[in-house]
């Protein structure tokens, strides 16, 4: 269950049983936040709206694949949105931008970063945890999530050995998980 009392896992399980009212509740709960994230990832509202639509179709049609033992429901729906957005970017050949400035803004103290994070993640906890990560661990994680880069692409971009990148991402994700659970 999320901090706001919304039980994503149970709602997704109801969607798997084809409960349209549950699906509508899920849409009402998350569509705004998901649209904000899609706009951030895709850069255009019209593309973001298409992505959001595709993500909710996928959520509805694949709700029976959600397994609460494997992870949280909210994370599951956001991963669907993220993969839809990354697929759109790849199909348009726009996946990698040379400017990673916004990545560091996600962990800084500026009002823009706070607004960005609050809009996407409903709170400051992720931002706080990202701030606690040292840059060598934080940057590869953010490149993977926000740019959709593979470990190989991150290693090439940062001119750091692949094994080092994999280790930093693993350690960084472990630290983030511990911080978010604290």
Structural overview:
- The structure is a single chain.
- The protein is mainly alpha-helical and 182 residues long.
- The chain is 74% helix and 0% strand.
- It is globular and about 50 Å long.
- Residues 95-99 and 110-123 have low confidence and may be disordered.
Summarize the helix and strand pattern as letters: HHHHHHHHHH
Q: What is the number of strand segments?
A: 0
Strand fraction equals under 5%
Average pLDDT metric: 80
Supply Rg.
17 Å
Largest sheet: none
- In DSSP terms, counting alpha (H) and pi (I) runs of 4 or more, how many helices? 10
Helix content: over 70%
Q: Indicate the structural class.
A: mainly alpha
Which descriptors would you attach to this protein?
globular; mainly alpha; 182 residues; 10 helices
List the helices and strands and how they pair.
Blueprint: H1 8-16, H2 20-42, H3 45-62, H4 73-91, H5 101-105, H6 111-121, H7 125-132, H8 135-147, H9 151-158, H10 162-181
Helix pairs in contact: 1-2, 2-3, 2-4, 3-4, 7-10, 8-10, 9-10
Compact overview of the structure:
With 182 residues, the protein is an all-alpha fold. The chain contains 10 helices and no strands.
């Amino acid at each position: 269950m999320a901090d706001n009392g919304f039980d994503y896992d149970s709602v997704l399980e109801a969607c798997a049983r084809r409960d349209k009212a549950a699906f509508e509740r899920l849409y009402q709960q998350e569509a705004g936040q998901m649209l904000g994230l899609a706009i951030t990832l895709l850069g255009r509202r019209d593309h973001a709206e298409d992505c959001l639509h595709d993500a909710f179709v996928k959520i509805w049609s694949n709700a029976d694949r959600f397994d609460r033992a494997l992870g949280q429901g909210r994370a599951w729906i956001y991963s669907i949105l993220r993969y839809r957005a990354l697929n759109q970017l790849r199909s348009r050949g726009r996946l990698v931008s040379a400017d990673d400035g916004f990545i560091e803004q996600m962990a800084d103290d500026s009002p823009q970063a706070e607004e960005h994070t609050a809009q996407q993640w409903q709170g400051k906890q992720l931002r706080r945890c990202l701030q606690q990560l040292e840059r060598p661990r934080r940057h590869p994680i953010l490149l993977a999530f926000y740019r959709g880069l593979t470990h190989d692409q991150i290693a090439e971009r940062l001119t750091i050995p692949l094994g080092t990148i994999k280790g930093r991402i693993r350690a960084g994700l472990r630290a983030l998980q511990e911080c978010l659970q604290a």
